[in-house]
Design goal:
16 helices; 7 strands; extended; alpha/beta; five-stranded parallel β-sheet
């Protein structure tokens, strides 16, 4: 029997000699199988990449790490290389943490990053930079300011002009907390970009002894607010029992983790926790030690932090009494059991405060002589340092909304008065008309217009 020619059709049959089962493979089936295989490979690779990404430690993972002693420096280098690629080409130590030289203003300018924890002296710290024409002062207090100034900082560094000086105060408020990954990565990237351009960069914050902080915090937020401000637990005539009841646990650590919103009355009324575990507070201090050049104390502002900032920013401090609370709770008059209670619930803040006194000594820089006497404050008649009296910035719009409300109330009253006058005028017109009719002086409407000229 003659052999059959091989088929050249798109479909070819192959027969298994053992079982006689035939399989048919078309070109479309083969293409579909290849596409499916490629799709599976891509999914597997994507899954592996995501696992690798999330398995790597991030700055926020340090919340579970606690204190790490002397292992901060290697961790900082790895963290910064993850934050920005330019760090790989830079030598560590150029005005960065663990450098031995205190940065100073030079021909390139200066950048100062200040984390403002409430009730630690921040209003006085920023005073030489606010309204100073030689400095660009930026304070982040809310999401709109954070987004705006964050992008502005990147744009400014990419188009840096020699001689520019920026004081960037991060006050948080309604914006992201300092421990948020975005905030800390931004600061690390700005430092790295400044290093590339040889711009001095100095980052710092200030802590306060917890008992003094608790008293000042209560007097300002709870006892010195107006009744219409519903953000805080306003107490008209506060007692020591109110202070005992409303004092927050570790408020300085709480601010860094959850911002000032955790101080609000509505925050606790919603059932949100104000407790930060020991590991969380340890992570806060770990970020301070690895990312800040200086952590000062409110109690030694005039002896330590002010001279340092004067050296760094070439500014001068003068005694300023702003943002002062009218103390209704006095620290020296507290009962021993109240003091013991506050000490107990602020132990983590006290650990940070005491450790900062050890890790950030005043004489830690080789180019700063702590024994040199501070220069006297410059005269007040120097234009670029004279602090003018300006209205406090209305960053949240409270004052503007208050003014708008007052204006609406005034307009409403004016309308009422106008309607009242209009009604009175109508009544008077009716009386005049009745009198005219009674006297026989009423004219038709079409002739009333020409009555004066006709007579």
């Amino acid at each position: 029997m003659p052999s059959q020619p091989l088929s050249h059709s798109p479909s070819a049959e192959r027969t298994n000699a053992n079982n006689g089962v035939s399989f048919s493979f078309s070109s479309s089936t083969i293409r579909g199988a290849l596409i499916l295989t490629m799709f599976v490979v891509v999914i597997i690779q994507l899954h592996m990449a995501l696992n690798k990404l999330y398995s790597e430690s991030s700055p926020c993972d340090s919340i579970l790490d606690g204190f790490k002693g002397e292992q901060h420096q290697p961790a900082t280098a790895v963290e910064r290389r993850q934050a920005t690629a330019v760090e790989d080409v830079l030598p560590m130590g150029l005005n960065a943490p663990y450098s031995k030289e205190l940065p100073e203003v030079n021909e390139q300018g200066m950048i100062i990053f200040y984390l403002h924890i409430p009730k630690t002296g921040g209003t006085t710290i920023m005073a030489p930079f606010d309204r100073n024409p030689h400095w660009r002062y930026r304070m982040v207090y809310g999401w709109n300011k954070q987004d705006k100034y964050r992008q502005e900082m990147y744009d400014t560094l990419q188009n840096w002009e020699p001689g520019m000086k920026i004081f960037y105060e991060y006050h948080a408020g309604l914006s992201a907390p300092f421990m948020d990954l975005t905030v800390r990565e931004d600061m690390l990237k700005w430092r790295a970009m400044a290093q590339v351009r040889k711009i001095p960069f100095f980052a710092f914050t200030v802590l306060r002894e917890p008992l003094s902080f608790a008293v000042s915090h209560f007097n300002y937020y709870y006892a010195d607010r107006k009744g219409h401000d519903e953000r805080y637990f306003f107490v008209e005539n506060p007692t020591e029992e109110d202070f005992f009841r409303l004092t927050l646990p570790n408020p300085q650590c709480l601010f860094c983790v959850k911002t000032e919103q955790a101080y609000y009355q509505s925050y606790r009324e919603k059932g949100k926790t104000v407790d930060v575990p020991k590991e969380g507070c340890a992570a806060v201090y770990d970020s301070f030690k690895t990312e800040f050049d200086w952590v000062g104390a409110t109690e030694t502002l005039s002896l330590e932090t002010f001279p340092l900032i004067e050296h760094v920013g070439n500014v001068r401090y003068r005694p300023i009494t702003k943002n002062k609370s009218h103390d209704k709770i006095v620290k020296s008059e507290l009962k021993p059991e109240t003091v013991a209670h506050v000490r107990n619930i602020t132990q983590f803040d006290l650990d940070m405060y005491n450790q900062a006194r050890i890790d950030f000594p005043y004489n830690m820089w080789s180019n700063f002589d702590s024994q040199v006497r501070r220069p006297k404050p410059l005269p007040a008649d120097i234009p670029h340092l004279k602090m003018k009296q300006f209205d406090k910035l209305d960053l949240l719009g409270h004052e503007q909304r208050k003014k708008d409300k007052q204006e609406r109330v005034k307009q409403r009253q004016d309308r009422k008065e106008g309607n009242g006058n209009k009604k009175g005028n109508n009544k008077q017109k009716l009386k005049d008309k009745e009198q005219q009719v009674a006297e026989g002086r009423q004219f038709p409407p079409d002739q009333s217009r020409t009555w004066n000229t006709a007579h």
